[in-house]
Design a protein that fits this description.
globular, 2 domains, Rossmann fold, five-stranded parallel sheet, 7 strands, 14 helices, single chain, alpha/beta
């Protein structure tokens, strides 16, 4: 029986060292990244695949279903333009948008031109006037304006089957030779509900990475992170506590597919920790890697002397239950 390729997903709540674990796996000869080592967020981002699933099958309405279709289409159009900072190539590969449109057509059951109220009132000034002019001069009927499509999804079984095919198509078209290789993906599932990815990818294992809040705050502050409150200590503390408290208990059926790694421990005791990780993933221990853990080790505790005394003591006092060093 042919062995299925393993897909490993690394996920963290932000600035938690997940990139280092991803880079370790990618430095092994038995792992590949379809996306040049960049993050792949198509599944769990707000306009991504899981958003389709939620609006199609968990909280269905005619408008929410249609909007999810529309958002995904626009999101994929934007993703196709993303270029890797590492090699200046398109992260999602050739014909990504075309493949995405084909996927949307396959998961659609019914579609028709329409202009529901929520879209009508959201038209900008120019579009509203154009709509009125066309209606008056050319006597166009409402459905003839072709401003928006109402779209209803196919049944859930078809959706899941087509999603798996779509993802495989994206992965494999960006990899020259997948034989005897595993795939590693960065930030491709929801850290707070990681098992969602198992609906869409077969033979998948998940690595959740956490880090001491002092290290996270320093990382956010020094990088001026786009998405995180590293500029304000008190907001950060509230944010971090909220993020950790929002974690759900993992369903028993998925526990054997998920491992949690503490970033500091992984770097500090690299050889033993990577053995544990390799054992969990059921990958060979003797495959060489080129991961520079010594470089990561030098930067591991920068927060100790880069943050001021007040910042260190405030985080230590307010987030004492989450400290890792």
């Amino acid at each position: 029986m042919k062995k299925k390729n393993l897909t490993v997903v690394v996920s963290s709540p932000g600035n938690s060292g997940g990139g280092a674990i991803h880079d370790y796996l990618l430095s092994r000869k038995d792992f590949l990244s379809p996306f040049h080592g960049e993050e792949f967020r198509l599944i769990n981002d707000p306009y991504g695949i899981d958003n389709l699933y939620i609006n199609f099958y968990k909280h269905f309405s005619l408008n929410s279903s249609s909007e999810a279709f529309s958002q995904f289409k626009e999101y994929c159009s934007n993703l196709e333009k993303l270029v890797s900072s590492k090699n200046n190539k398109n992260i999602y590969g050739k014909n990504f948008y075309k493949k995405s449109i084909n996927y949307l057509n396959k998961i659609e059951k019914i579609s028709y031109q329409a202009l529901p109220q929520y879209k009508r009132i959201s038209l900008n000034f120019k579009s509203k006037n154009l709509y009125k002019i066309k209606k008056k001069l050319f006597k166009l009927k409402n459905h003839e304006h072709e401003i928006f499509k109402v779209r209803v999804p196919n049944n859930q079984k078809i959706f899941l089957n087509e999603t798996k095919k779509y993802l495989k198509n994206i992965f494999y078209s960006n990899i020259k030779n997948i034989k005897n290789k595993n795939i590693v993906l960065d930030q491709s599932t929801n850290f707070w509900e990681p098992e969602i990815i198992n609906k869409y990818i077969e033979n998948c294992k998940i690595i959740l990475v956490t880090r001491d809040p002092r290290g996270i705050f320093y990382s956010m502050k020094s990088r001026e992170s786009f998405a995180y409150p590293g500029y304000n200590l008190k907001i950060f503390v509230k944010w971090y506590k909220y993020m950790m408290d929002k974690r759900k208990i993992i369903n028993k059926g998925f526990k054997n597919k998920i491992i949690e790694i503490k970033f500091e421990k992984f770097i500090e005791d690299f050889y033993n920790e990577k053995k544990k990780l390799n054992k969990f993933l059921k990958i060979k221990q003797n495959v060489k890697d080129s991961f520079d853990y010594e470089f990561s080790k030098k930067n591991l505790y920068k927060a100790k002397y880069k943050l001021n005394k007040y910042e260190l003591s405030y985080i230590k006092r307010t987030l004492k239950d989450y400290l890792q060093w």
